[in-house]
Amino acid sequence: MLVNWHNPDHIYLVCGKTDMRKGIDGLAMVIAENYGLELYNNSLFLFCGGRNDRFKGLFWDGEGFIMLYKRFENGHLSWPRNSNEAK
Question: Which pTM does this prediction carry?
Answer without folding.
Answer: 0.84
